[in-house]
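Memo to structure team: turn this sequence into structure tokens by end of day. - J.P.
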Amino acid sequence: MRNLISIIAAVLITSVVVGSALRTAPAEPSDRQEVVFWHFWGGRDRPLVQEIVAQFNASQDQYFVRAIAMPGSNLDLKFFLSVAGNDPPDLLNHDDPVVADWAHRGVLTPLDELTTADEIGRLEAWLFPAARQLGSYEGRLYALCNGLDVRALYCNQTLLTEYQLPLPRTIEQLDQIAETIAPAADASGRKQMGYLPDPRRLWAWGIVFGGNFWNPQAGEPAAKITADSPKIVAALEWMAGYSRRYGPSEVAAFRSGEQALAGAAFPLLDRRYAVIMDGQWRVRDIAQAQAAEATSGKAPDEFAVVPLPAPAEGRVNAGWVNGNFFVVPRQARQKQGAWQFMKFWSGFSETAQQAAEACAEGGWIPASQSVVDQRVYQQALDQSPLLRKFVELAASENQQPVPPLPVASVYYQEVVAAAQEVLYRDADPQASLRQAADRTRARLQEVLDAR
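Reply from structure team:
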């Protein structure tokens, strides 16, 4: 424990020193007010982020954004260390379900403190429903979403055609694909599956089956957590049918096998699956793989994207959504500069054209229909029909994020852990979800009691 405290203390000192150095570094140009911006973007997206920052800095003469990449899995720790050291960034871009938790702790600035009620009203109407939910806690916006991540079914259409199977528009057709390509009676040690549910995706299938993971109207805090409601249990029962069909150990072994395959970041491309659920970022992977095969003289497989099929009493165009969003720390020094930059990036401050260009280049889904409707973005969608399907889903009211509760991250993990117990260890769906819900309820009560 003493070593752990020493490590945290050292990191805290380093964070404060680094933060102070950033604050004291001369701004460029020196007559502007500096906005320190932390983000997690890396790889092929980082140059685009740098370009957006450069465009903003060139667009006006009052603020200068200094972007600092904070890649890795410890962004939350770095942020809270900066808060503890009274030297947080002015603006942070994140993509985990932390808004409700951080707002509850009082470390975020509500957006209605940065502007007028009229502009907040226009912003709420401007955002897609899912983007509005991602930034809200207890009826107030604390974050501005700048991009959505949506899930749908990717289908290897060439492979399905070889088996004379249609694209899965119903649950029954999806089950048929699974059984036709990987019959349950076959021996173990399979190298290919038609479809196999992922425990993480109960968050999507529960909504598709007509369930709700929370009840915002509930009077008692514990009643807000509804992971063990009948329709979500029904979704997990359906998912568990695959484990029962193939055997939990076989399903677990197949999942472990794909982690060991070198160069198989997206297992649809090597025909390991015929159908798989994933997000819009895979569109670029598919395009690159098809281009590489065409260059080598091979005929590339064709792919399609379809919404998650719903049962008779389920929801259409439904699923689980998350996204990227901006938050302004309560202790930020340059809040107005942060507000202007986040509006610039998202396209809300009469910069929809610029935002559309960035989204088109990055393959991102905007947070507003007004950005989607820009000609440059529509042209990009004409060239990428797979991405267009995701963008169409983004506007649906049936795309729902993790509930905006101060235990959202805990809730997410508890539900995933319950689904893993069911799919990989043959646990009972209803009992597993009840235990997950009860643990989350207990944690929620602890958090509320500590307020």
